[in-house]
Amino acid sequence: xxxxxxxxxxxxxxxxxxxxxxxxxxxxxxxxxxxxxxxxxxxxxxxxxxxxxxxxxxxxxxxxxxxxxxxxxxxxxxxxxxxxxxxxxxxxxxxxxxxxxxxxxxxxxxxxxxxxxxxxxxxxxxxxxxxxxxxxxxxxxxxxxxxxxxxxxxxxxxxxxxxxxxxxxxxxxxxxxxx
Length: 179
Known about the structure:
The chain is mainly α and 179 residues long. The chain has six helices and two strands. The chain has helices at residues 17-41, 47-64, 73-79, 84-97, 113-137, 143-167; strands spanning 3-5, 11-13. The chain is elongated. Residues 1-163 form the Cobalamin adenosyltransferase-like domain.
């Protein structure tokens, strides 16, 4: 009948912001899974990190599916989201960034299948973040969830560049069309 239940048992319309955010997060995990498969075919060592990210996205979903306005303390304890995964992403970003040449121009999603799939994942991640931010602002989700998605998009960008570099693929540079 167009309704679904949150983890707290609350019935909400399927078009509710909670389910929009959950759907976007699920799409993100699927996009990362695809990027992981392409990257695995190329022997990239970061594939285990992508798997860990997918597991963290399950935890993100648990937090989103537990609106704080209807959550009991037991729900909150079970679905809380800490800052630790955010800090881990920042360490990964720093590690890969140190190995990359400086960015001197806008790049287009490119650089081979692994890189392009990671860029696609980044775009899906930004959409998921846009869906989550209103929930955080309304006090319905943990702010660390939004922080995680924000840092995750940066991680995916850096990783896309790293994959292209490791595979010896050229990143396409944005060129402004002549008037």
